[in-house]
């Protein structure tokens, strides 16, 4: 499978990143291994996780996703060398001092992630959320030390707006610190407003890698949620109700039409739209079955035509 440069990190990734938030939540360990095997077999090579995944599940504490991925690495000799591994720091783990982007916490949190993943180095380490209580200089200084120690290879940021990213890049330049080289924004056919515009323009101008999350709008863009009655189909359904709007209906209608022209599934088309967008390196997408990984492979090969782009852009244009 063709790979793409991930901004200026020196890393190259296939056009879809696996979202590891499902591990330890909607997917058990055995199924996780099967899905990861299939993902690698289809030629994909990047996995995204975070120290917080999946703490929201009753009985979990965070780190469950990293632990499952680490067990998969251990059970599959050689797999680690084929994977570009992302994880994140900064979310609130529910214990005193275990949140944010202070040097103290980053220094502690990286050791936990490395241990759970069973690796010596993480390829791309993200600031999960902005931290208004910690100076950006302190955060980037902590990452500088981790980079020099070989514990991480590149840094990125998730959930920054254009102003925050501009400030972070300026601090890096002014203080001689490593800049964020990858951005992870929420972005999909429905949720376009926060990335399209100033943030996307900045990412393109700076040559940042961009990996989008909620790329299928929590499953809405798969087409399986079309009414309130459909929301009970999965544990993720409760987060989909907000998409059941007139605009959501238009987007699904456009996806259906494009899907029919290409004998594809709506999710495949939605991912292909992201893969082909300027300012996007690769969407992050989760799967709960091997069959869904096969859909990823189809999406990566799907070439949308001008009429497809026109239909999807018109239906999803933000008000």
From TrEMBL:
InterPro entries attached to this UniProt entry: AKR_Detox_Biosynth (IPR050523), NAD(P)_OxRdtase_dom_sf (IPR036812), NADP_OxRdtase_dom (IPR023210)
Record-annotated NADP-dependent oxidoreductase domain positions: 15-315
A Pfam family reported for this protein in Swiss-Prot or TrEMBL: Aldo_ket_red
The protein's name in its UniProt record: Aldo/keto reductase
Lineage: Bacteria, Pseudomonadati, Pseudomonadota, Betaproteobacteria, Burkholderiales
């Amino acid at each position: 499978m063709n790979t793409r440069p991930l901004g200026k990190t020196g890393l190259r990734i296939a056009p879809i990143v696996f979202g590891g938030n499902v591990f330890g939540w909607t997917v058990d360990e055995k199924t996780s291994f099967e899905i990861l095997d299939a993902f690698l077999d289809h030629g994909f090579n990047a996995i995204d996780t975070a120290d917080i995944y999946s703490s929201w599940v009753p009985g979990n504490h965070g780190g469950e996703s990293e632990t499952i991925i680490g067990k998969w690495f251990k059970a599959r000799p050689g797999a680690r060398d084929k994977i570009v591994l992302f994880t994140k720091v900064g979310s609130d783990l529910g214990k005193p001092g275990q949140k944010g982007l202070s040097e103290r916490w980053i220094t502690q949190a990286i050791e936990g992630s490395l241990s759970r993943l069973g690796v010596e180095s993480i390829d791309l380490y993200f600031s999960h959320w902005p931290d208004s209580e910690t100076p950006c200089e302190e955060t980037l200084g902590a990452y500088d030390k981790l980079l020099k120690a070989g514990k991480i290879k590149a840094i990125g940021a998730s959930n920054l707006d254009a102003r925050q990213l501009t400030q972070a890049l300026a601090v890096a330049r002014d203080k001689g610190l490593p800049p964020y080289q990858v951005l992870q924004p929420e972005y999909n056919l429905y949720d376009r407003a926060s990335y399209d515009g100033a943030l996307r323009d900045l990412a393109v101008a700076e040559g940042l890698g961009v990996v989008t999350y909620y790329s299928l709008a929590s499953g809405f863009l798969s087409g399986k949620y079309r009414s309130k009655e459909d929301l009970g189909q999965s544990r993720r359904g409760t987060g989909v109700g907000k998409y059941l709007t007139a605009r959501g209906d238009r987007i699904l209608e456009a996806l259906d039409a494009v899907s029919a022209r290409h004998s594809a599934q709506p999710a495949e088309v939605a991912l292909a739209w992201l893969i082909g967008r300027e300012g996007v390196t690769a969407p992050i997408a989760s799967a709960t079955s091997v069959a869904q990984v096969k859909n990823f492979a189809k999406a990566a090969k799907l070439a949308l035509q001008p009429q497809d782009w026109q239909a999807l852009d018109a239906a999803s244009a933000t008000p």
